[in-house]
Amino acid sequence: MSTKKPKHTESEAYESDIDIEVEATEFEGVSQKDKQKKLREELTAAKEQAHEYLTGWQKERASFANYKAEEEKKRKDRIEALKLNLISDFFPVLDSFDMAFGNKEAWEKVDPAWRTGVEYIYTQFMNTLDTYGVSPIDQTGVPFDPNIHEPVEGHEGDGDLTVASIIQKGYRGKDIILRPAKVKLTSAA
Fold it and tell me: Where is pLDDT greater, at 166 or 19?
């Protein structure tokens, strides 16, 4: 009789060489009920932390959106201020037009075709200013307002003061006085 050795496969040989150690877990020796309780507590804590992170992220996102909107408003305000400042640099040119038109005798002597051209240029200029929200302060017969008028003559007296004439036009840009009108005043009393 012959004795046969059992045949081992190669994988079985490797398995016998490997020592498997089972690591002890925190739940070893703990009842199923206690395991569930502990896991629920951990889940609740994880949900609270996730909610806290989400809330913080949402606040930061809203804060950043507000920052962007505020910076955009500041940028637009700076651009508007620069535009109005640039427009203010053209007021001496407008004053020159007003002086030319104001001397009726000399203005009437100018060639009519040339005069019409200059008047057209002036009208274009004023229309352009109007598109930017700039308008002249040039009314007479209105009560004196120190916010929009700069008195040059006639500001003594006890009664209510009225604008008698405009010495130099003023200009406003939307809600901002770019240059007050220089005016002669008279007492309304």
Answer: 166
Packing angle between helix 112-131 and helix 91-102, nearest 10 degrees? 140
Q: What is the pTM of this model?
A: 0.63
pLDDT digit string, tens, across residues 56-85? 999 999 999 999 999 999 999 999 989 999
| Cα Rg of the chain, angstroms | 44
Q: What domains, with CATH codes, occur in the chain? A: 135-189 (2.30.22.10)
